[in-house]
Amino acid sequence: MGRRVPFSHRGEQAIQAFQEADNLDATPRLSHGDEVVYSLEAKKARAKGEILLQPASPLAVSAGEAVTWENQPGEPFKGAHAMIVETLEHPNTVTAGASGDRMNAALGAGVLEPAIDAAMAAQARNSIEKMLCHQLAAAHHTAMRLIEHSTNPNLQPADLARFTNASARMMDAYQAGCLALLKLKTKGRQRVLVQHVNVGAGGQAVVAGRVDRGSRRRGELAESKDGPDES
């Protein structure tokens, strides 16, 4: 398949129209009628962009995603322009095009189904989290494929070391990505679990857990304010 023609998707055409409007607004006015002409052209370009932002056909929601068929008459093969987009409150052709590119990248890497499954399992809420879930799926499957290659009994020791080391690096990348996803979803906040333990007469219990950073310092300040313990 040849390279796709630039600005062939409605979302790309919308972006181009908005850029044209911004350029017209920034164009110096050199004559008396320039203000009227350029302002009118910019208004027309923005109106065109708003129209192009709207999907060409209704979006059908399925499995937490939305499916649209864009530019179907000119597609090189049946289903070429089927796009999966985020179920945003107001999806448009830019989000559709971006999601289609993400899905095509996952498909080319051979991890389309695991990528979608990972995004759904992680309850990815936006494009950034979805892309990270797709990377996690790709890193995991690459690591497993490298491990599979390393089980070949005919491998030379150097090749065996190369495959296992590469797999270990991909596993490290996967685990780092999991931590990054956790930080994105929790916005860097730590959760503290408070446990309530009932102890009967004569019993004794010690419950240890993580303490918020800085609590020891606050305790020292409170002790100095109340005065030293004289008992």
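Next protein, fold it too.
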Amino acid sequence: MRYAIVAAAVALAAMALMGIPSTCSDRILFAPAEGFAYHEPEARYEQLFPYYVELCAVSQLRSEELPSGGSPGHAAMYLKGACRDTDAPYPKLRRCKRNATDLNDPEHGAGVSVNRWFHNVNWVAISGRGMFFEGGLAPGETVTRARFDQVAREAIDTGAFAGVELWPFPHPTPDPTLFDFVSTRGAGTDFALRLGRSALCGRLPVEPEMLDEIIHFLNDLNREYATGAVDFEWNGYHDNCVHTVRNALAAASVWDPISVRATKLLQLFHLAVPANEAINLAALGTMGPLADYPEIFRDDSMRHALLEFGWLPTRHGALLVSLPVRAENELFDPSARIMIFQGPVTRRATNRLLEMLDDPRFTELDANLAHFERIYRGILAAKAERDPFGALRGDRYRRVQRRYRALVESELAEVQRMQSTLGLH
């Protein structure tokens, strides 16, 4: 996959050098996945999973009244169980005080977003899933310019942008205010995402200790910029919105990190594209090599996650969430698309996404639990094959294998408890 992305990136750079219009390169290198349906777990999911992470790709903003975004869209992250520290002088996170199941409760979690115009921080946090995705709008409420501006003021009033300094940003007036920024370049990008964008998210339940590592990574990142050690300089190639959210998950051993600001040639191997990362997380959570212990042992991140947190990324509760832009819209184009980076000929990534969206085990809780119950049972029922090289692998291989089987037993018991709670057994 990385090599396909590199090839496409080289082709894109060549087109730019040749002066080919960006709309042409978009059609060749970005495949739109249009019209996907609304998929989000019901409220009962919130009762079963107190901690989860979502890496979200959101589509390009398109409006006749407000600035539009780039074709690849934007990446953001929602953390259930991590809350904004309202006492901090700059954006900072803490563990939430309780397991809130109301999506509008500030103690439910926080959305994290990177913005290219931030100067002294890398990201901001927005309290509550309702504000992060819906901007506080009621179901069926129409998105208007006046309502959009009201949402911007409400976000400022919560203190979400307190302590944030900005680089000069394009604006028709010579001395724009914080409201000018939030109402034109913050709302719809850092929060209130569905008012102008479609969202595609990979959701993954995590352990509380893992969430702590994510919080520490993000807080350390903002502290570096807020204390003046260095200015944050966004770069779509070297250090964009995806690098931050992907590497935050890597801090908890969800997967491997990707380099930031490597040399130009090496950076080609570390490109970060929003939709591809969201799909990768959803695929890892649902289709990873859970039944292949040797592969798990060889994978550093999986082995570390198993040993440090008693957790593996392929597990029940991992889902693909899709949230189309609000159709009742007077401000933004409601047909916004998710753009997927792939080669100029194949539509493999797009087809993979559409297949996942059409498969209930990726999008619906009941089917997901039933799917993983079968997998866990199959792992435990399978007789361990005789390993002719077992004596050479050493005790560590066998110790980790015992942890692996113990985890599968525990996960099976948890799935069965969940199914019983939901009345599925």
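About the second fold: Residues 1-30, 263-269 have pLDDT under 50 and may be disordered.
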